[in-house]
Write the structure tokens for this entry.
Amino acid sequence: MPKGTVSILGLGAMGSAIAARLRESGYATTVWNRTAAKAEPHRAAGSAVAATVREAAASDLVLVVLLDHASVRERLEPVAADLEGKVVVNLTTTTPNEARDTAAWAAGQGLTYLDGAIMAVPEMIGGPESLLLYSGDENAYAIARPALETLGTASYEGTDAGLASLKDMALLTAMYQMFGGFLQAVAMMRTVGVPAVQTAKDVTAWLGAVLPHTAEFAPVIDGGDYDPAPGQDVDFTRLALASLITASREQGVSAAFLEPAKRLLDELAATGRGAADWISVIDRLTIR
């Protein structure tokens, strides 16, 4: 029984992986790419190749996997009328407000639109470890869900079109900060000849032991009761970070990853909050 037609706009590494997975799952796929040569392997694999975005817009479901926010609008605006009655899912990486902007434009055109964020690399698409977040039009999600679930674990975040992008970027922020800490550790240890391979093993074991403590921090943050500290206080943590900064510098390593955290704690202490739980530093992250 036919599963419906899906068009994929954009055949970079991610768009190509998505097109391949949908083909494997039994969907009739049409692909389009600005550089036509990139579509030829997909033609050979069984996809139809659209010469224009307007031609690709004939499918029931249109997945947009382009470079950025500007390219999405550039490609979709001229074919808005052709997309009426279709479901458009934008999987291009955008900021939350860019996602909301496109959703507002789509609503103004009468389009059924969903925004998405891919928390996976192309090689992960179709596997259980591939997580894709969606937000916006709930009806669009319901219609597109069978196809979307072939790409990995699908999670609908809510009707605010910016939520998928926001969660994606929040989690990526945590990832990059963690990787930054790893690089700091490697830089320190290699000054005494310890290879990065060994430090990676040590960091993996250590972080695996301490990351579960975030579940203990979370209810304190949600409750907002930081003083007196139920855990480690600001003054203790300032001294701990100062020691880490000194140790890095003694080894001839920059403390650039550590200094901003120490500065935030110093600012908090200057307001008389030295005895508060150190995680209350989260309040310093709000831009006033």
